[in-house]
Amino acid sequence: MADFSGEAWYAEALRECQVSLGNNLRLKKVIDRARSGEQITIGTVGGSITEGALATKYEECWAVRFAAKFGELFGTNGGENVVLVNSGVGGTPSSFGWMRYGRDIAARVPESDPDGLPDLVVIEYAVNDWAEPTGYRCYESMVKEILSQPNEPAVILLFSARNDGWNVQGEHKKIGDRYDLMMVSVKDGIYPHLDKDFPKKNFYKDEYHPNSTGHGMMADALMQAVQDAAEAETSASDISLDVKPAYSTDFMGLKTIYGDTVPEGITVERGSFDKIDKKAYSNKPVGIVCGEQNFCHGKTSEGLEPLKITGVFSKCTLSWLASADTAYGAAEILVDGKVKMKLQGGPGKWGQSEVVLVLDAKEAAEHTIEIRVTEAGKKFTITAISVK
């Protein structure tokens, strides 16, 4: 990546990325612990930009670079005590990030970390949440539940932008403002300088994704904000979690069902979903998304018996493998015996997990969710199911 550190426009752009430095008390505590040699885990959750898509190599994505820079500046022995757990997954919204947070971030924190939880979490969904099915309620629930962890982690909201400048940071910003979080925006800082001080084509690789140079600039913007917050006067008190939600936190406490994990109080009958789909989406930071155990009705599965989930809950989100491969067919989703929706792959699908909101009741009650394949001889894969 080219070095812009000596250029006035770049220094200006990095500081213009700072939507807010937020309450810095938690961040300073994380930095102090890193400087003392304690192991610090940085968690990153987001879409394909967090995954590292279209960086020349994974090591050049913003998440890896940011963790490395944080470790070099605040860690010990060149940052060996700062660890990254990246859970970016392309083409997925924040509701999917929240469904899999426990498995793809929290469960991957190294055993050597004293509290076993991420200490600093960066959330990036500003170009992924354009049609998020819960209306940002999962995003806010994720933010608040992370902030509620006993180790009191710091949370940063990162707003990437499409190459035409579009994103949903205005909606996400309402959540950041409510909890006084650090927020860093490509749209506000870097984007206005593209094709003015720096060619846009040298930042973006395609419509959505930065190239390695763009990833590096995003990492620089994050680090500039962290440095400025570290040098600012310490906030007098911690952030308040006793505030009225910007949207709602009714997805806090979400429990996710995987092929190998069933939460207490939930009954799962696999029916003809007796296979495991090894072709489910996988990537460098996560591996097979949501682990290697999913619910797959395979080509050779006998019958069309539904996958059935029974228990007491008020909310249900479901992620399914939306494949364009003609080997995959369609399925109906039933709630308490009534068809709620039909899911169909085909042209235009990417092979990532799409999320649907299956149940959205105010009060918990006994419910049965059924997934019924409608085409014999076709595959259909459920990545995960979450209930609250």
If you had to describe this structure to a student in words, what would you say it looks like?
Strands 7, 8, 11, 12, 13, 14, 15 and 16 form an 8-stranded antiparallel β-sheet that branches. α4 packs parallel to α10 (212-231). Helices cover 24% and strands 26% of the residues. The protein contains 10 helices and 16 strands. The protein has 388 residues and is of the alpha+beta class. It has 2 domains: 8-231, SGNH hydrolase (Rossmann fold), CATH 3.40.50.1110; 255-387, Sandwich (Jelly Rolls). β4, α7 (137-147) and β5 form a beta-alpha-beta unit.
Rounded to the nearest angstrom, the distance between the terminal CA atoms is: 45 Å
CATH topology title of the largest domain: Rossmann fold
Order of helices and strands: HEHEHHEHHEHEHEHHEEEEEEEEEE
Enumerate the spans where pLDDT stays under 50 for 5 or more consecutive residues: none
**What CATH architecture of the largest domain would you give?**
3-Layer(aba) Sandwich
Structural class: alpha+beta
Strand content: 25-35%
CATH class membership of the largest domain? Alpha Beta
Based on CA inertia axes, which overall geometry fits? globular
User: Major sheet: size, sense and barrel closure?
Assistant: 8 strands, antiparallel
Average pLDDT over all residues: 96
Number of strand elements: 16
The CATH fourth-level homologous superfamily of the largest domain: SGNH hydrolase
Percentage of residues in helical conformation: 10-25%
Topology (elements, then pairings):
Layout: H1 8-16, E1 18-20, H2 25-35, E2 40-46, H3 48-51, H4 62-74, E3 82-86, H5 94-99, H6 101-104, E4 120-124, H7 137-147, E5 154-159, H8 169-178, E6 182-185, H9 186-189, H10 212-231, E7 255-257, E8 267-269, E9 282-283, E10 287-288, E11 295-297, E12 307-321, E13 330-335, E14 338-344, E15 353-373, E16 380-387
Parallel strand pairs: 2-3, 2-4, 4-5, 5-6
Antiparallel strand pairs: 1-6, 7-16, 8-12, 9-10, 11-16, 12-15, 12-16, 13-14, 13-15
